[in-house]
Amino acid sequence: MANVSVYNMEGKEVGSMELNDTIFAAPENEHLVHMAVTLQLANKRQGTQKAKTRSEVRGGGRKPWRQKGTGHARQGSTRSPQWTGGGMVFAPVPRDYSFKMNKKEKAAAMKSVLSSKVNENKFIVVDDIKVDEFKTKKIVAMLDALNTKKAVIVLDDVDDKVMKSAANLKNVKTAFVKVDDATVSATISVYDILKYDTIVIAKKAVENIEEVYA
User: Fold this and answer.
1) 57-60 contacts: CB < 8 A, separation 24 or more?
2) Do the beta carbons of residue 200 and residue 151 sit within 8 Å?
3) How far apart, in whole angstroms, are the C-alpha atoms of residue 66 and residue 80?
4) In this predicted model, what pLDDT tens digit does every residue of 117-139 receive, in sequence order?
5) Which one of 30, 122, 192, 208 has the minimum C-beta count within 10 Å?
6) Burial status of residue 206 (CB atoms within 10 A of its CB: 0-12, 13-18, 19 or more)
């Protein structure tokens, strides 16, 4: 098993912990990682764009001139696409861009990116991530002590003080992995792990990840 150091919020090493090789030494699967990122981005798309076709544009019910004898090309409606104010030929319509991955694929993608961060030494375990007040500078001080600027902070539970303290930092994202009475709730994602340079994770959150994905 891989062995990583455990730090406190002041950046001092306070111990070590062994990581489960099933999760943190998994083979990299670029295809599934790409699918997971595409899934998250596609599921965020609203798909609400809309333009009117010739059948939906108001007016144009009467033929603008008779079929023959005017010298003009024949026209059936002033709302045909070639007319100003006419409808669009292949107008975009509301659609759903989302798609699904099965659980094993999602788990494999997550294991792949977690393993890559461990291999790159960009997986920093902190014994406990807590702040006693809403102070952004406390999160900044922790990241400075851990020698990282762009990070996703992973907690073991929802913590408003930490999350709101980090909310104003453009290069920091907070997430959590919570396991409570066999109920799992998590906001950690493959996309965020790839987007941010380093994972700063609470020791308890590592244990929760191992419980979820083992």
Assistant:
1) 57/85, 57/86, 57/87, 59/85, 60/86
2) yes
3) 16
4) 999 999 999 999 999 999 999 99
5) 30
6) buried
